[in-house]
Amino acid sequence: QVQLVESGGGLVQAGGSLRLSCAASGSIFRGNTMDWYRQAPGKQRELVAGITSGGTSNYADSVKGRFTISRDNAKNTVYLQMNSLKPEDTAVYYCHFARLVPPRRDYWGQGTQVTVSS
After folding, report:
1. In angstroms, rounded to a whole number, what is the distance separating the alpha carbons of residues 58 and 42?
2. pLDDT (tens digit, 0 to 9) for every residue of the chain, 118 residues total?
């Protein structure tokens, strides 16, 4: 069992910055990925960025160059630094945790709202 708690969401103006945090607790396995997804009203949930326990990261094309994902394995915490925010970034952001070895298990946080005004 893994529990995820997000923080850092809020309301910002276009061009501003925000830093999201997600702290994981429970049965943390060495091989895992911690990711950020987002879902805007009326749209599918999409992957924003992810990072493995080994430090390999990936980003959606829409956020490359603006967002940076990082993690502190000692604290079991993943961060998402969001710069140059756009109104299109407005969504509920969800933290995600998954094992990379069988049996694969997925865990989700409650979500934190990010609103970017124009």
Report:
1. 25
2. 899 999 999 999 999 999 999 999 988 878 899 999 999 999 999 999 999 999 999 999 999 999 999 999 888 899 999 999 999 999 999 999 999 888 888 999 999 999 999 9
